[in-house]
């Protein structure tokens, strides 16, 4: 794995910390999962956009 360092606003950290407590996960795990999910959603959107553009005459 590659280590990445992020700077977060304290309010953002508190939000993810609260989610982590409810899910019994660390802030790092919650952020990692959220970023992974976002990357997947953005990839799907990009693929759909590409398909639409390929269908245009």
C-alpha Rg (nearest Å): 16 Å
Tell me about the largest β-sheet. none
Give the class from helix and strand content and strand pairing: mainly alpha
Secondary structure tally, helices: 2
How much of the sequence lies in strands comes to under 5%
**How many distinct beta strands?**
0
The global form is elongated
Low-confidence stretches: none
> What are the secondary-structure elements, in order, as H or E?
HH
Overall helicity: over 70%
What number is the mean pLDDT?
A: 92
Give the CA-CA distance, first to last residue.
Answer: 43 Å
Can you give a write-up of this model?
- The termini are far apart.
- The chain contains two helices and no strands.
- The protein has helices at residues 10-23, 27-55.
- Helix 1 packs across helix 2 (27-55).
- Helices cover 75% and strands 0% of the residues.
- The chain has a domain at 27-57.
- By secondary structure, the chain is mainly alpha-helical.
- The mean pLDDT is 92.
